[in-house]
Specification:
Layout: H1 8-11, H2 16-31, E1 34-38, E2 52-57, E3 63-72, E4 82-87, E5 90-91, E6 98-99, E7 102-109, H3 122-140, H4 155-158, H5 160-168, H6 172-178
Helix pairs in contact: 2-6, 3-5
């Protein structure tokens, strides 16, 4: 049985920015990826002011794909969490270039409170890592056919990358890299 990890005190160690930084560190170590938040030329693409866009770059600096993060609950938005493929990645025939994957992670986390950064419960952290696993599946796919790209695979394989990422939310070695109290910086013990 898993440990009982809940409560507002634990959430104080999971600020959203630290959690995303933790994923970036993990993805950098495992896959050589870097995240860059896109702040210019993006307003027309965003469907809400709380949505952010990340460029995902390979070790050599080349663009691997784009991820939109729509993480907070709001009026008119459905509940739950999901990964949506906006554009599948694929190699172009007779070219070095490829069509870049574009995905959206949509969750319904509680909106930030004034004076406090967005804080996640452990369940929300696990959910974020899970959905990010689906996004990585799409970003890291290298196929000739877009209909065989990313999560468009056999149903028994589609959950493998997301479950792998989700398990990192339970790994003490990973958590100690980013689970720090949002006020004091104390590492989650």
């Amino acid at each position: 049985m898993r440990h009982q990890l809940s409560g507002p005190c634990l959430s104080e160690y999971f600020s959203l920015s630290n959690c995303i930084g933790g994923m970036q560190s993990l993805c950098g170590h495992l896959f050589g990826l870097k995240f860059e938040q896109v702040t210019d030329r993006v307003q027309a693409e965003l469907w809400d002011t709380s949505v952010t866009k990340l460029d995902i770059r390979e070790e050599d600096g080349s663009l691997a794909g784009h991820i939109y993060l729509d993480l907070f609950a709001r009026a008119g938005k459905g509940e739950g969490a999901a990964h949506y493929t906006i554009q599948c990645g694929r190699r172009w025939e007779h070219a070095e270039e490829r069509q870049l994957p574009v995905v959206a992670l949509v969750c319904s986390f509680n909106s930030p409170q004034p004076g406090v950064p967005p804080l996640l419960s452990h369940y929300e952290l696990e959910t974020l890592f899970h959905e990010f696993g689906h996004a990585l599946h799409s970003i890291l796919s290298r196929t000739d056919l877009q209909h065989a790209s990313g999560t468009r695979v056999m149903i028994d394989f589609v959950e493998t990358p997301s479950t792998l990422m989700e398990n990192f939310a339970w790994d003490h070695r990973v958590l100690k890299l980013f689970a720090k109290h949002y006020q004091t910086g104390e590492v989650c013990a």
